[in-house]
Amino acid sequence: MQRGNFSVVTEFILVGFSTFPHLQLMFFLLFLLMYLFTLLGNLLILATVWNERSLHTPMYLFLCALSISEILYTLAITPRLLADLLSTCHTIAFAACVSQMFFSFMFGFTHSFLLTVMGYDCYVAICHPLRYNVLMSPRGCAFLVAWSWAGGSVMGLVVTTAIFHLNFCGPHEVHHFFCHVPPLLKLACGTNVPIVALGVGLVCITALLGCFLLILLSYAFIVAAILKIPSAEGWHKAFSTCASHLTVVVVHYGFASVIYLKPKSPQSREGDTLMGITYTILTPFLSPIIFSLRNKELKTAMKKTFLSKLYPEKI
């Protein structure tokens, strides 16, 4: 690799699914349906919580913030993916690549921080029910949501700044369907690339692992509190309070661990592209389904809110 032979990069080429030419139309239809369902599901959650006064509680405030972060996360990635699946031109401007990386990391980490806050909310609701209104006051909830968004913004800024301060050389072909860190690092050249890669990896893993450990700690206290409840009905009621959140956490971190902990190989480009679908499209697609189906209060409120408009004589 020649040193000093750097040129100013004005655009990148997103290879994406162009390596699967015969499947692009099928991918487009599948991803379009999943994207629309993701938007619809999250908008239904927001509308239901807005209209149903009984859901104006901290848990559903956090759920609304989570739905907004998921809508914005998919908005940063999926429309561009859908456009590329129908186009023969896969170039993306340098500035657009920078903004896509920033917003995808910002909303992605905001999502992780909000899941952590929701775990804390479950912990307070089950372990300290008498102090719940004090610990989860409106001001305290707004503070937690604001810090989650601020933390996501800082993570997005740190990662994006570190990556795009590198020099890029070569064909500028990004072997992914969006501007993601690993394929961009493969295009970077210079002696500082390994240091930046290590630093970005440590920052991201530390943040995600910290969130995961805090959620585990919350559920350790929750399980200990539930085991002290004498009746089976009490067990069921306590567990149902956090069942949907726990399911989403398992899905979120399960897919993330598969992506980031699997062994890397030089021949894994197409596999990495396909696996990228799990955390960019599949996880946001499943989240509103899980919250809608596993949360009895939300499911009942949705039926009351929307079925009453469609079939007023049956309500």
TrEMBL record:
Residue span(s) of domain G-protein coupled receptors family 1 profile: 41-291
UniProt keyword annotation of Transmembrane helix present: yes
Membrane topology: Multi-pass membrane protein
Keywords, sorted A to Z: Cell membrane, Disulfide bond, G-protein coupled receptor, Membrane, Olfaction, Receptor, Sensory transduction, Transducer, Transmembrane, Transmembrane helix
Recorded superkingdom: Eukaryota
InterPro entries, sorted: GPCR_Rhodpsn, GPCR_Rhodpsn_7TM, Olfact_rcpt
Entry GO MF terms: G protein-coupled receptor activity; olfactory receptor activity
TM annotation in the entry: 25-47, 59-79, 91-120, 141-164, 195-227, 239-261, 273-293
Predominant cellular place of this UniProt entry's protein: membrane
Cellular localisation: Cell membrane
Function: Putative odorant or sperm cell receptor.
Protein name stated in the entry: Olfactory receptor 10H1
Native organism: Neomonachus schauinslandi (Hawaiian monk seal)
